[in-house]
Amino acid sequence: MRATLDAGVGWVPRDRHEQGLVPGMTVGDNTTMSVLDRLGRFGCVATGRRRGIASELIERLDIHTEGPEQPVSDLSGGNAQKVVMARALASDPRLLVLINPTAGVDVKSKESLLARMDSAREDGTAVLVVSDELDDLRHCDRVLVLFHGRVVAEHPAGWRDHELIASIEGVDHG
């Protein structure tokens, strides 16, 4: 994880419950764990600084919570996914890797997460999305279809659903 952060990569994993959150910790702890080096010196975390950064992230990602001290396990799926996204963005990554970023979240949370993905890209962050959700892929400049580790199709922004689905299913319209 440290090498990934040092390389400037933020990451939203496929499974927020198994890989994205520490359920026994608070919203504030989860959102700031990628920036512990900014929260204090000599391994000590300045509580006020952590709370301030967490509060900024909560506001920026529109996380519906009672505040940074709320246990992350109390959140809805969409808000929990926003916490994972907040942690990935907290370190101001040069590359943001999102794996199925909107899986299992409600429509409002999906819209919010996709808007945040667009904002990151507009701010100059490279965004790599790995997803089987067409809504996630609509926000991409380019979609590559892989089969057995090889690129089998490429679609620029503005692709049509049936064209992309045909590529995914291995249908050749050539």
UniProtKB/TrEMBL annotation:
The keyword Nucleotide-binding applies. Keywords: ATP-binding, Nucleotide-binding, Repeat, Transport. GO terms for molecular function: ATP binding; ATP hydrolysis activity. Coiled coil: none annotated. InterPro entries: ABC_carbohydrate_import_ATPase (IPR050107), ABC_transporter-like_ATP-bd (IPR003439), P-loop_NTPase (IPR027417). Residues 5-103 form the ABC transporter domain. This is ABC transporter domain-containing protein. It comes from Streptomyces haneummycinicus.
